[in-house]
Amino acid sequence: MAATVPRTPAVKRRILNRDKLEADITGVAVRVFAECGYEGASIATIAEQAGLSKQNLMYYFPTKQALYERVLDGVLDDWLARMATLADPGQEPRDMLRAYIQAKLRFSREQPWASRVYAMEVIGGAQLYGQQIQSRVVPLLRKDIEVFERWIAQGRIGPINATHLLFAIWAMTQSYADFSAQMALVLNRKQLARKDFDDAEAMITHMVLAAVAITDTAPAPIAYDR
């Protein structure tokens, strides 16, 4: 077996610098892909906004598809980390569902560009990233469904189609990123505020707990701006 070559401080610095530069590039790219879509986005535009030459950017990401897939890898990593909340069967269903909804709404609030890029890929038929979505999302979804089925068998929640319940939670929470502009217009403001996400969390949690036959206090009515 070949001996492991120790990393010198200079090598470590280069790795850290590369990681930071790639993170800066993907941070710009996620916004450009969200605003322009995959077809409308260009490496030149992303490079310019990242403060790099096109050739320099392509040293790290040789093609637009490679950069796009890296962006979506990051989006899915974050999304699945929050989704994994349901995989712990030891918690109470009420607490777990509340934490799950809170995590999904936090993703919409903190990562709106990421949510929109993912949504646009799926709306377009997941032509470029469908295999990764299927291979990574489906196994975790099945684990979550098993948790619901165990709760149902134990009489801890009422009978429910867990797959479609999760689809509904995804749609309700992700809409606060993907359709935030429409919501802000309806609420007569420039953008959604933290209180809007808090109100959404209360309402969605109440609806979901009611759907699985867990009683919960109804949320206070929302006061719309005039």
How would you explain this protein's 3D organization?
This protein is mostly helical. It has two domains: 10-62, Arc Repressor Mutant, subunit A (Orthogonal Bundle), CATH 1.10.10.60; 70-211, Tetracycline Repressor, domain 2, CATH 1.10.357. The chain is 72% helix and 0% strand. The chain has helices spanning 9-40, 43-50, 54-60, 64-83, 93-110, 112-123, 130-153, 162-178, 180-186, 194-211. Helix 1 crosses helix 4 (64-83). The chain is globular, with a radius of gyration of 21 Å. 24% of the residues are buried. The model is unreliable at 218-222 (pLDDT under 50). Keywords: DNA-binding. Residues 42-61 bind DNA. Residues 19-79 form the HTH tetR-type domain. One of its GO terms (molecular function) is DNA binding.
Draw up the topology in text:
Blueprint: H1 9-40, H2 43-50, H3 54-60, H4 64-83, H5 93-110, H6 112-123, H7 130-153, H8 162-178, H9 180-186, H10 194-211
Short descriptors:
226 residues, mainly alpha, Arc Repressor Mutant, subunit A, Tetracycline Repressor, domain 2, 72% helix, DNA binding, Homeodomain-like_sf, DNA-binding, TetR/AcrR family transcriptional regulator, Tscrpt_reg_YcdC_C
The fraction of residues in strands falls at under 5%
Tell me the count of domains. Answer: 2
Residue stretches low in confidence (pLDDT < 50, at least 5 long) are 218-222
What is CATH's topology name of the largest domain?
Tetracycline Repressor, domain 2
User: What's the number of extended β-strand segments?
Assistant: 0
Mean pLDDT: 86
Classified by CATH, the class of the largest domain is Mainly Alpha
What structural class is derived from the secondary structure elements? mainly alpha
Radius of gyration: 21 Å
Spatial gap, N to C terminus: 72 Å
Counting DSSP H or I runs of 4 or more residues, the number of helices is: 10
CATH architecture of the largest domain: Orthogonal Bundle
Which superfamily, in CATH terms, is the homologous superfamily of the largest domain? Tetracycline Repressor, domain 2
Helix content: over 70%
Q: Could you give the order of the helices and strands?
A: HHHHHHHHHH
Spatial shape: globular
Largest sheet: none
